[in-house]
Design a protein that fits this description.
The complex is a heterodimer. Chain A has one helix and ten strands; from the N terminus they run E-E-E-E-H-E-E-E-E-E-E. Chain A starts with 9 loop residues before the first strand and ends in a 15-residue tail after the last strand. Chain A is globular and about 45 Å long. Chain A is mainly β. In chain A, the strands form three sheets. In chain A, strands 4-3-9-7-8 form a five-stranded mixed sheet, with helices on one face. A three-stranded mixed sheet of chain A has the order 6-5-10, with no helix packed on it. Chain A has a two-stranded antiparallel sheet with strand order 1-2. Helix content of chain A is about 5%, strand content about 30%. Chain B is α/β, with parallel strands linked by helices. Chain B is built from ten helices and 22 strands. In chain B, the strands form seven sheets. In chain B, strands 1, 2, 5, 6, 7, 8 and 20 form a seven-stranded mixed sheet that branches. In chain B, helix 1 packs parallel to helix 2 (about 55-70), helix 7 packs across helix 8 (about 345-350) and helix 7 crosses helix 9 (about 365-375). The longest helix of chain B is centred in the C-terminal third of the chain and has 18 residues, at about 265-285. Chain B starts with a strand and ends in a 6-residue tail after the last helix. The chains are: A mainly beta, B alpha/beta. Chains A and B meet through helix 1 and strand 6 of A and strand 10 and helix 3 of B.
Chain lengths: ~120, ~400
């Protein structure tokens, strides 16, 4: 069971949350438990992290706005690549996620190993 | 690799799935392109019972897809259409967001656009704060992601989704309050930089970490406009929709539209219109008639249909309210462009960059139209949407560059 305080474990209509493989992602150097394959944005919200990036022009904080890949507010640096829409990017073991500032920095890392 | 079909259906919600049944059951080779992990479209987010059909929203997609599959239709999930071209070819991204992400082309003899609708944004101060989102977003978080976005929600607006998003938030264990309009709202951040409080013009103060915009939705017509469909203003929606005949045929031959994208705004109507468009396609392709259609789910229309002409409130002249979220263009920037002579959405776009960002004007166009109408006296009907150009969704250049196959 993950330690994510915002996870809905039991829903009045949908029932119990099905079990899932758990993986660890690193968000701003902090390890977080994720359900394998869930959108990164879901993992962040499950752990109460609402800020994804700050904007280029005015330095304003943005978070998940549309949740379906159509607005870009949830974009973060993922495995060194900026502008990755976390609401449509599945979480995988070892993914490295960083809060993005402006257009971000391009510093791609090796792809994360898929843990057995 | 190029994918070929006789009928390509863009969108796997009720309209697209019903179309797939009607066409496939008459022998049309059908491929459905759907962005979701599973079909159902907007209904996949709903936990409520649809009156008269006695089915919960999330069960509609699997039920109707089951029938479509039995009729021989093919479904591409996690597939996003980014362009629609003159030879009826469709640019696709497959496996979006995964390491297998790749681009491809789909060629079809006929196309049905069943792309649904996009929620409306708002422009009040603080509307861009983390914690502010749309009804689609909140339902996605609660029902698909199984996470609460916070503890205390404020639902803003009287759009059609407002009543059942209030119930959905409560069912998920959140505190919920409502306020009927976004006009005069001001949202404030807390110490962590995310939403903490909202004040209304009347002086009401809501402590909340979640704000849900329920301001209606716009038909998603980007692909239709890219392909050059004639558009018309639909007053009951406050949106432009493609000109269409009784079977959903647009002004472009062999291109049809059905469901929310056609302005239906109702799952029951969407099922019926999808079937009708597909029947027209089957006739067009010369397929034999005479077989009864398999039992497609029927939902009595009107259960959740509501006038969707609610729009976000317009910002006062010259204010720093953010209008284009992607490019951070403010109302003051737009007003300066209008003062300098901008008269169309395209004019404003070219002068301010509004609409040039990642969303390609999806979220700001209604506000730009409203501002132009209120500042210059033009009718909203005459303020056409921005020209839609490829791609309508973000696609990594590397993914496009690796696309192979014939030219």
């Amino acid at each position: 069971m993950s330690d994510a305080p915002h996870r809905i474990h039991d829903h009045a209509v949908l029932g119990a949350l099905p079990s899932a493989e758990l993986v660890t992602i690193i968000v701003d150097d902090e390890p977080l438990v994720a359900r394998s394959g869930e959108p990164l944005a879901a993992t962040l919200l499950a752990h109460g992290r609402r800020i994804c990036r700050t904007t280029a022009r005015m330095g304003e904080a943005r978070g998940v706005f549309c949740a379906v890949g159509l607005c870009g507010d949830c974009a973060m640096q993922v495995d060194g690549i900026p502008g990755v829409r976390t609401c449509v990017t599945p979480a995988r073991q070892g993914m490295v996620v960083r809060t993005q500032h402006g257009l971000g920095v391009w510093e791609p890392t090796q792809p994360p190993d898929d843990a057995p | 690799m190029t994918i070929r079909a006789e009928l390509a259906i863009i969108g796997g919600g009720p309209a697209g799935l019903a179309a797939a049944i009607a066409a496939a059951s008459r022998g049309v080779r059908v491929t459905i392109v759907d962005a979701g992990d599973a079909p159902g479209g907007a209904t996949a987010l709903h936990t409520h019972l649809y009156p008269g059909a006695e089915i919960r929203g999330y069960a509609i997609g699997p039920r109707v897809w089951q029938t479509a599959r039995e009729c021989g239709a093919t479904l591409l999930s996690r597939a996003v259409a980014w362009g629609l071209f003159e030879d009826n070819s469709i640019g696709l991204v497959l496996g979006r967001g995964t390491p297998d992400e790749r681009a491809d082309m789909l060629h079809a003899d006929a196309i049905i656009l069943a792309t649904g609708a996009t929620d409306r944004a708002a422009t009040f101060p603080g509307a861009t704060l983390p914690g502010v989102s749309t009804t689609t977003a909140v339902l996605t978080m609660l029902h698909r992601w199984r996470v609460r976005p916070g503890a205390v929600a404020l639902v803003v607006g009287s759009g059609p989704a407002a009543p059942f998003v209030v119930h959905a938030l409560r069912d998920a264990g959140m505190d919920v309050q409502t306020t009927p309009t976004d006009d005069g709202l001001h949202a404030f951040a807390g110490l962590d930089g995310a939403l903490a409080r909202v004040e209304t013009r009347a002086g009401d103060v809501f402590a909340c970490d979640t704000l849900v915009l329920a301001l209606g939705a716009e038909p998603a017509t980007e692909l239709a406009r890219m392909r050059g469909c004639a558009m018309r203003w639909e007053p009951s929606l406050g949106s432009h929709i493609p000109v269409q005949d009784a079977s959903g045929q647009t002004s472009v031959p062999h291109l049809f539209i059905a469901g929310d994208a056609a302005g239906m705004m109702d799952a029951g109507y969407a099922l019926a219109q999808g079937s009708r468009a597909a029947a027209a396609v089957a006739d067009l392709l010369g397929k034999p008639r005479g077989r009864a259609y398999p039992d497609t789910l029927t939902i009595p229309p009107g259960a959740f249909r509501a006038v969707s002409g609610v729009t976000g409130a317009m910002p006062p002249i010259g204010e720093p309210h953010t209008v284009c979220r992607c490019e951070e263009v403010t109302a003051a920037d737009v007003d300066a462009a209008i003062a300098a002579g901008a008269r169309t959405l395209g004019d404003v776009k070219r002068r301010t960059r509004a609409g040039m960002g990642m969303c390609q004007g999806r979220w700001c166009s209604p506000a730009l139209r409203g501002m132009l109408a209120t500042r210059t006296g033009q009718l909203p009907a005459t303020l056409l949407p921005m020209t839609a150009r490829p791609s309508v969704v973000p696609v990594p250049l590397g993914v496009l560059a690796e696309m192979g196959g014939e030219g």
